[in-house]
Amino acid sequence: MTNSMNNVEFISNLVENSYKIVKKEVVDQYQVSFVVEKEDVHSLLSFLKTNGWKQLSYLSAIDWIDDNKFELVYIVFNWDKPVYIQIRTLIDRDNPVMNSILPVFPGCKYYEREAHEFFGIKFPGNPDFEKQLILENWDDMPPLRKDFDPRAYSDSKFAKREYTEDFVNLNGQKSKQKERELQKENIIKVRNGGKK
Amino acid sequence: MKEMKLFLGPQHPGMHGNASVHMYVDGDIIKKSFLLPGMLHRGFEKGMERHSWINNISLIPRVCVVEPDINEMAFAMGVEKLLHLEIPERAHYIRMIILELARLSIHLMAYGGLGSPTGLYTLMYHAHADRNTILNIFEKITGHRVYHMYIVPGGVRKDLPQGIEKDIHSFLDDLESRYEEYRDLGINNPTVLARITDTIMLPAEVVWELGVTGIGMRSAVNKAYDLRKVMPYARYDQIEFDVPIAGYSDAKTRVDCKLQEVVQSIGIIRQCLAKMPEGDVKVPIGRGQSMRWTVPSGHVYSAVESSRGEFGYYIVSDGGTHPYRIGVRGASYPQGLLGIEKYLPGTRLDDAALWVDTMGVCSPEIDR
After folding, report:
1. If you ran DSSP here, which 8-state letter would residue B223 be given?
2. ipTM of the complex
3. Nearest CB partner across the interface for A107, out of B211, B230, B314
4. H helices within B40-178, ranges in order?
5. Does the pTM exceed 0.95?
6. Rounded CA gap, A185 and A57, in Å?
7. Candidates A58, A106, A110; nearest CB to B327
8. Does residue A65 lie within any of the structural domains?
């Protein structure tokens, strides 16, 4: 464990000699990230697996809506040389397709299904990436995209509850409905970072 | 023979949490099975993007219901990595005490949970009684019993109360004195032993194929693959402890490893209490109003060793007051979803509940 900084350097040299790296970031002595082209992902993952990064820890996506891109993230880990490697790649947001890594890491099956469900990314090669996993009978756009608005969705989906009058006040006190609404507005203002 | 469809869960004593295992059985041999998650989906990953960094502290412990502290730790570690923040020495030790107490509580609960699929409820009541003592200690330290919101980015929320060492020591002594009794109730009991010996094997190849971590992995590959040893976070590198391993993984070995970890956790807490220095427990991560604190942009993955394996948070910041994206890597993803689909078929119907229990499948962290 004492030479773990060498591990980052070791794998960086190994990867940079064989692959074109768009961007490299060293997070700390246990983590490094490579941004690569979409075409290089599969060969790089199998290269790492051959070199001991046998465990797929995480697979997901990020929605960069301003650049009109999705960023796919693969995180692999080696238990003997403890370095987490993030492999990131940008894919088109309008037609998001990425070939499945199922032959390389069989454990990715459900991560890819989840990414399809929450971002709408297609993974040809994975036999049931289109089956629903968590969201039942979902009829809107994939919910983790940045342009999905949960408030608008719940307003359109469910009947609005309106409480025009306060509950019956036995002691004849004044209604506190207005004060509560004011308080609620203030809370929303604070949540939006003080924007009015 | 005709195939028949059966459900294990969500209302079943052998199913922990709100998920359901659908099984097609022929006689009592499972032909096909899959886990149906989604009954507890609360949209946390979307919700975290809509809350500020500090507000999220109240949201993250809810990701895993029975073991909330690992969530706080992974999130706090990730944010500190992005900020390049060094936290006080005392905070590290308090964090370790909390994490190990939480590990004791979940191990006791999981070991007690072994009682329900095997039909031996005495074990469960004993384990829950001890877990209650841990929750009492948590209540004294943090003010909450289950969701503590205690480990925050920058340290811990407040210092330990005076005299809590006495409570913790008396609990640990009590648990240690009854440790053999626990073994006799569960793993040495002939009734339970007949059910758990040589059932649900997990060979090392399957571990690598599925990506199982934690006790399942260590009991199969015979190596100390524990994140606390492999890449020590907090101050685990200054504490002496062993990682229980085994070369043959069946239900009994995994339960045995779990019980040995209880002993190690007791030792870790004692060492932490002895080694803990005096001083501050928290550094502020920003200036001004806490709702407007920002975190420098970057991508970071932080992982801790939970009772079920590697539990990680993938945090993306764009430099704003809110996280841009937070992804949660639940430790029970491989064995819970892919494992049940691929390797549960072929076993007997009554082993399904044991799979869920001894592998450690936590449905809230699958759904999120």
Report:
1. S
2. 0.86
3. B211
4. 44-49, 69-83, 89-113, 115-118, 121-142, 164-177
5. no
6. 41
7. A58
8. yes
Domain CATH for A70:
3.30.460.80
Q: Where are the alpha helices (DSSP H) in chain B?
A: 44-49, 69-83, 89-113, 115-118, 121-142, 164-177, 179-185, 190-196, 204-210, 215-221, 227-230, 251-275, 333, 339-343, 352-359, 363-367
- How far is residue B116's CA from residue B121's CA, in Å, rounded to a whole number? 6
Domain count within chain A: 1
Distance CA B148, CA B69 (A): 7
Q: Are B326 and B45 in contact (CB under 8 A)?
A: yes
Res. A155 pLDDT band, cuts 50 70 90: confident
For chain B, residues with pLDDT lower than 70 are 1, 13-14
d(CA A114, CA A134): 8
Q: What is the mean pLDDT of residues A159-177?
A: 69
Contact between B358 and B83 under an 8 Å Cβ cutoff? The reply is no
Contacts of B43 in chain A (CB under 8 A): 143, 150
**3-state DSSP assignment of residue A168:** coil
In a domain, A69, yes or no: yes
Within-domain flag for A31: yes
Domain span at residue A75?
4-191
- What phi and psi values does residue B86 have, to the nearest 5 degrees? -100, 125
Sheet holding B310-317, edge to edge: B298-305, B310-317, B325-329
Q: Which residues contact B36 (CB under 8 A, 6 or more apart)?
A: B19, B20, B21, B22
Give dist(CA A15, CA B237) in Å, integer: 30
What CA dihedral angle connects A14, A15, A21 and A26, to 10 degrees?
A: -80
DSSP B105-132: HHHHHHHHHTHHHHT-HHHHHHHHHHHH
Q: What is the pLDDT of residues A89-144, one digit of tens each?
A: 999 988 899 899 988 888 888 899 888 989 989 999 888 888 888 888 888 888 88
Residue A196 belongs to some domain of the structure? no
Chain B neighbours among A 116-135 (CB < 8 Å)? 118, 133-135
Asked if residue B322 lies in contact with residue B49, where contact means CB atoms within 8 angstroms, the answer is yes
Q: Tell me how far CA of residue B274 lies from CA of B97, B102, B171, B233, B285, in angstroms.
A: 11, 19, 16, 19, 28
| A88 touching B (Cβ < 8 Å) | yes
What pLDDT is stored for residue A165 in this prediction?
61
Q: Do B211 and A57 touch (CB under 8 A)?
A: yes
